[in-house]
Amino acid sequence: MPEAPLRNRFPLLDEVTYLASHSLGAVPHATKEALGEYYDAWATQGIHAWDGPWWETVEAFNKDIEELLNAPSGTVAPMLNVTRGIAGFVSALEPTQGRDTILMTDLEFTTSYPLIRGFEDRGFQVEIVESQDGRTVDPEAIVDAITEETLLVHTCHVYFRSGALQDIERITEAAHEKGAIVLGDGYQSVGIVPTDVDAMGVDAFVGGSHKWLCGGPGAVYLYVREGLVDELDPKLRGWFGLEEPFAYEDVEDRGRPAEGTRRFLMGTPNVPGLYAAREGIGCVLEVGVETIRERSLSLTDRILVHADAQDVEVKTPREKSKRGGMVCIDFEGSEKVTEALAEEGFVVDWRPDCGIRVSPHFYNTEEEVDAFFQALIKAR
Ligand SMILES: Cc1ncc(COP(=O)(O)O)c(C=O)c1O
């Protein structure tokens, strides 16, 4: 059987059978040292940490994310969370007579509904495309809903409820034909599914580090396409988004926005969060997302074989091209079984309508998947 790459770098894997990377990726040992470096720079350099290692860490984060997304330099900026990234991007859009609709599906991440509904007060209309099976949304249903009135289509690359992979490229092509733009959410895809913002054609993309990138909370990003970004003037803005944050003194105007996606920064970036994310993202880059995807598909195939041998419902699409890194399985009593499994050291999670979400990453082994199902049979 193939070795699980870099497995010995993740201490948690010696403690438990960890199959919950869709929720929180395991942390590498080296992150402890990275956080120590953050502290040492502060302790020994004081304010000079800013123009030295702290700002270098911000830039290194942007560069790593650009590499993961195949995005040009200057198109990514760090955010505190995805909610903030979406809010900043939408704040730069203007609803006009005849083009004012934000189109979403009913499978987006929970945060998108209260957030986007908040923009209705600014003159946006919100339209929701409904999933027919509660797990997938046919891209053609989204395509059919895009009209000349659509300003923005906002959808996930992989849906958190089911692990279904969306054909964003098809949606983007149709949106552009109608003069609309697309904001993708890649939190459940980047790090486990190869993601190329250029090939997808998306106008903007958000995602973050605490799931498949093994980088912990607070290291999130917003990508905005070159060419589009120059036309956008975010209303959620601040001094870090200005070309000259220190030179700015004119209280009469707003200051000149920075070049590229940095204009979406508001205040001080979350430096410790970016230090914490460095090693996990580094591991993903070292293994390579193409290799990770191959391994993930093989491990999730194995989950499907086990699931089919048991009387459980699979709530994730079976076709390789239609699923991300997570498989949802459900049966009567699945919530209780998840609790029993946790006591035995098997870490997965449970959500209403999804059932048990099982997510192997590059560091998991075939034996762990087999052991998980043996424990599940015992616990039922
Ligand atoms: C698809 C998706 N988007 C966004 C988030 C998180 O958003 P935020 O960074 O605002 O907490 C999650 C999960 O935490 C998610 O699964």
Task: Record keyword descriptors for this entry.
Aspartate Aminotransferase, domain 1, Aspartate Aminotransferase, domain 2, 7-stranded mixed beta sheet, 4-stranded antiparallel beta sheet, 12 helices, binds pyridoxal-5'-phosphate
Report what the structure shows:
- The chain has 380 residues and is α/β, with parallel strands linked by helices.
- The protein has 2 domains: 7-19 and 288-379, Aspartate Aminotransferase, domain 1; 31-284, Type I PLP-dependent aspartate aminotransferase-like (Major domain) (Aspartate Aminotransferase, domain 2).
- 37% of the residues lie in helices and 14% in strands.
- The strands form 3 sheets. The chain has a 7-stranded mixed beta sheet with strand order 2-8-7-6-5-3-4, with helices on both faces.
- Strand 6 (181-185), helix 8 and strand 7 form a beta-alpha-beta unit.
- The radius of gyration is 21 Å and the shape is globular.
- The relative contact order is 0.17.
- The model has no long low-confidence stretch (mean pLDDT 97).
- The chain binds pyridoxal-5'-phosphate.
- The site of pyridoxal-5'-phosphate has 12 residues, from helix 4.
